[in-house]
Amino acid sequence: SSFWVGYAMYLFVGVSAAGLVAWLVDGFAPYASGSGIPEVKTILGGVVIKRYLGLWTLMIKCVGLVLSVGSGLSLGKEGPYVHIAGCLANIFSRWFDKYRVNQAKKNEALSCGAAAGVAVAFGAPVGGVLFSLEEVSTYFPQKTMVRSFFCAIVAALTLQYINPLQTGKLVLFQINYSKSYLWFEIFPFLILGVLGGIIGALFIRANLRWARFRKHSALRRHPILEVVCVAFITGIINWNSRFWRPLDNAILAQLFQECHSTHDPLGLCDRTEYMTAIGNLFLTSLVTFGLTVFTFGMPVPAGLFIPSLLNGACLGRAMGILVDQMHHNHPQWGLFDDCTSESCITPGIYALVGAAAVLGGVTRMTVSLVVIMFELTGGLEYILPVMVACIVSKWVGDAFGKHGIYEEYINLHQYPFLEKEEQISLNIRASDVMSKDLIVLTMHGHTVGSLNEQLRLLKRLRISGFPVVTSTSDMLVVGYITRAELRAGLEHAMKRREVNDSTRCYFAMLEMRFPRSAPFVSLVPWLHPTPVQVVESTPLHRIYNMFAKMGLRYALVTRFGQVVGIITKKDVLRYLREHHSQAKLL
User: Fold this and answer.
1) Does residue 109 or residue 419 have the better pLDDT?
2) Which H/E stretch holds residue 535?
3) Residue 434: left (phi > 0), alpha (psi -120 to 50), or beta?
4) Cα angle vertex 387, ends 382, 393, to 5°?
């Protein structure tokens, strides 16, 4: 009876926690779902996602992450740390005028926050800086790297002072192998890299297919029910296996360890039962793969790092046991000539390499992943096998699709994000891509009422802003004003008692031809006086690099100073998608 009581309580607590976090996210902060890395990457690429890094999202993310991890779902807490750190960076930047009014400075703070988030998640300050550089940031100058490094150091020191694991160390999975790897083991490591790339590609395809099904099915209208059902199934599976009932971190720690003691709760070191151990490891990997496919993307805070590491560690440990058993049964084989002891194979090294390979296949990380694995385990001696597995995993994964899971989710949500590298024909010019149907504002001749009407027109047409010109006849550039800034300027002006719908508005102080005593509204403080301008013959690849690396949202196309068109990030993406679609048809 005690077994069934414990079973029922385990399911009740897990399902209740999952249902509560789904209710909180769905009802109060939808942006708190997922890992947040795709959105942070998009924001650093120059896209504005309102309220995504706000205080309310931060609060629900923190509370929800505790509940979602405690529910036993197949997810990790490491990815959401990047989102949490980004929220903190955004909130703190509001306290300083230098950062509040300068988006470039704010993006620099977000890059530092991403580095600090990974540093706290894995106890990996150097890996955090490299993660921000390789995976998240679009623009990462040297001063940003130094400041990110400082933030990661402070985060790591704070983590060590708090000492949440009561070990006194930053290393999460300390390894102390008595033997190193041998030269012939590079070949199994290569195989693990290939398997990691294939598994990563399969996971991306399966998860995206399920995400698209969720987006266009009844599950979209019943998100809490989906979370409760997945939590219930996960609880049933976890309770009935010693491989799944402990926390994922505890299982990973066992998979990475060497067989040198009698403590073997998972039965990984008994040579007489090696086939049973291999079968359990393959089954654990398969079940973790399936549960994570259905879990990642649900409306709960969820990361991918730990499930991917667990998936790969199980496969790697299984291969390590197999190679060790081959040596035990056939020590006379030429491959084992360098073995000087009865047991010269360390399956834990294979688990380490397999974990890095699968995570690399899912995310397509390389340098930052290698450093994170080193800082995660303290195994500097085994960095070369990890490097081999990571690069092979990326190559194999890229053969199935060039994007990792985060880039695919950016495309799934249709965020206007530009990759750092894109093959573009040199024959395509700005005039081929620009929008020629312009809605412009002249620098004088407007009233508060007429501008409010223009704002309503922009909202219907989903246009984000106006080029401001001297007049409709000469079209010389004065500046650019976004819809949000124009609205803010008018709302600020309407607070004055003498301002009404007939009050005149001006975008340039030199053109104010009226009595000084007459009320007026100056919108000069909200005007961008130096918008980025390109000429019609500018190659598209140069414009693409400007958008991707500088985080631009628009560029005016001019001819002898006259506005003839505008190019937005969405225009570039739309043209590239159409171009790629035509290339596939041909």
Assistant:
1) 109
2) strand 533-535
3) beta
4) 130
> Which residues make beta-bridge pairs with 479?
468
d(CA 370, CA 360): 9
Residues found in the chain: 586
CA distance 88 to 79: 15
Q: Identify the H or E element spanning 564.
A: strand 562-568
Question: Residue 168, Cβ neighbours under 10 Å: how many?
Answer: 7
| Among 367, 345, 342, 369, CA closest to 355 | 369
Provide the token pair at 579: 């171009």
Residue 223, beta-bridge partner list:
none
Q: For the segment 112-155, what is each residue's pLDDT rounded down to a tens digit?
A: 999 999 999 888 899 999 999 888 887 788 888 999 999 999 99
Instruction: Say if strands 465-469 and 477-482 run parallel, antiparallel, or are unpaired.
Output: antiparallel
Give, for 481, the enclosing helix (H) or strand (E). strand 477-482
Q: Can you list the positions of beta strands (E) in 204-252?
A: none
537-550 mean pLDDT: 83
Number of H helices, E strands in the chain: 22, 9
Q: Is 239 within 8 Å of 7 (Cβ atoms)? A: yes
Q: How far apart are CA 117 and CA 155, in angstroms?
A: 8
Question: Which residue(s) pair with 31 in the sheet?
Answer: none
Q: What is the DSSP letter of 571?
A: H
Q: How far apart are CA 434 and CA 555, in angstroms?
A: 9
Q: Answer for the pair 188, 385: CB distance below 8 angstroms, yes or no.
A: no
From CA 76, how far away is CA 247, in angstroms rounded? 11
Q: Point out which residues pair with 584 in neighbouring strands.
A: none
Task: Write out the E strands in 335-461.
Answer: 441-442, 446-447
pLDDT on residue 351: 92
Give a three-class secondary structure readout of 437-474: CCCCEECCCEEHHHHHHHHHHHHHHCCCEEEEECCCCC
